[in-house]
# Entry
Amino acid sequence: MTQWFLKISALKDDMLNAIREDVYWIPPFLKNRMLDFVGEAPDWCITRQRYWGIPLPVWRCESCGKIKVIGDVSELPQKPTDLHRPWIDEIELTCEECGGKMKRVPDVLDVWIDSGNAVWASLTDEEMASGRYGPAEFIIEGRDQIRGWFYSLLGSGMIYWGHPPYKTVMMHGMFLDKDGNKMSKSLGNYIPIDEIKKKMGADPFRLWGVSNVPWDEVRFNEKDVTDAANDLNIILNIGSFLRRFTPNKYVDPLSVDQNLLRIEDRWLISRWNSVLKEITENMDKYEFHLATRKIRSFLINDVSRLYLKILKPRIKNEGEDRDIGLSTLRYIFFQSLKVLSLMAPHTAEYIYIHTYKDALDGEGYNEVSINMYDWPTFDLTRVDRLLEKGMVITTDIVSTVANLRQRVGIKLRWPIDEVVVVSDSTEVENTIDKLYEVIKLLANTEGVKFTRDFLSDYTVEVDEEELVHEFGEQAEHVIGLLRKMNPADVQKQLELRGYVEVDGFQVKKGIRVREDAGEFIGSWTQYGKVYIRKELSPELKKKGLLREVIRRIQDLRKREGMIESDRINVDIYTEGTIRDAVEEFMKELKDSVGAVEVHFVGEDDIPTTDKPKNTWKVEGEPLKIRITKVG
Ligand SMILES: [Zn+2]
# Structure
């Protein structure tokens, strides 16, 4: 039986060259896999002895054996009813050489010939000649296609065009279950996509999916999709915040006098331009997963957890500063939605329609859909690297304060008097100077102090036996060096790395640092050591208790469905320090909860309720509250 081949051996050098020079392969190791495969590839057998498939367009003379290859249906003497078997087999040609009868070779083509010609298969000669159709910009398939589609396209393209029919090829990984097994109905680990969409939503699934490295195996894990859903909820909440609080007058943050911007506004604008630059570069290199992770992190960490938190107290006062803050958030959030619309299209569109489509006076967001906007552009003149680094140092200090509070049992909403940062870095000193108000707010402290000298009493304890056990003959040398080290530095290394490094030795065990910092407690960060007082002063304790009362009244307001502008009267039953706190900070209490009058009453004057709960023990003291709407 005769088989027909494409003579790959004659093309091989050109193919290898094209793989090396003409195609962008993602991931980069795909290039070597293609080189290996094509380098070893035999001539391509293109015939199959089957019935179904594309008929081989070759006719052979029964008398002299001459063959004729048909390139187009118009070359046949009559148009067949159908181009497939059996109709095509009925067509006979007359041999030009001997006048004999020519019959079609009954084989069909290898299906990879179909796929290899996919780029131009449906185009007419005229369309091909128009020049509008060239190599595909981008194709993507799984790793099994190295010997399949990637190869068949390349071979066909080299014959048809003399160059590859694609410019960029991405290979994706396989979709597996959470334990790393291939999903299949027979194994029972197969989850239909409709079920996931119904249960968790299309956007969370998509956002999770595109956060993964495309060429790695992707393990489906419900928790990761839930995390994506939580992120989207946080992003939706930024949208609803911007619907609830709008500037009285929109102020374009890029063109307003830059001195009117607060440092956090300049930071947000800087940060966005830095992030957008990175995202744009990632997208240009088809690193969609990196772009996705960066836009997620920007919206969650930079916008929601940081900027929004700093902005909230600002918007309590009317005026230009409030307008500038809200306008900055509106502007930057909108830019980020243009990027997010690729990764979470429904969410981005929803926010756009509900928050931006009916633009405020002075804004220009009037397109029918977020998808109608061009990709945003970054402006490096808006980037302030020092400020961005300062904010990193700030969040580091703030999260360390939060840890210290937890260690000594002081709640986050209780103000503390002072945060002390001990460091020998000018960068940290400048940061605390520039971002003083931001640190104060986020750490909920009344002051932040930078110092190079902090009076702590350190003792380094060395367990010589342990070190001899660990380092043998070198122990004496190591111990000597440890004793010469600055105790604070020893402590820093132990806290941040879990070991001390001396002369190339890593000491993990047998060394301990005791510190007596008086009334303070401290913790190392890579930028320095952060201290707070272990106990609140009586005055601050009262302020903390006041926060507890305020929080409960606000909760009651919310449960009774009141809106911001509603005014209330408050009856309170309490004793001891809480009563002192309320009396001392009466004005602050009234301002915070929108109260006209606050009265102290007896326990029995307020009926106890469960829903909403109106009776508590706070720091051991009783508290009972009733609120009534005024007017
Ligand atoms: Zn013939």
Remarks:
- The chain is about 45% helix and 15% strand.
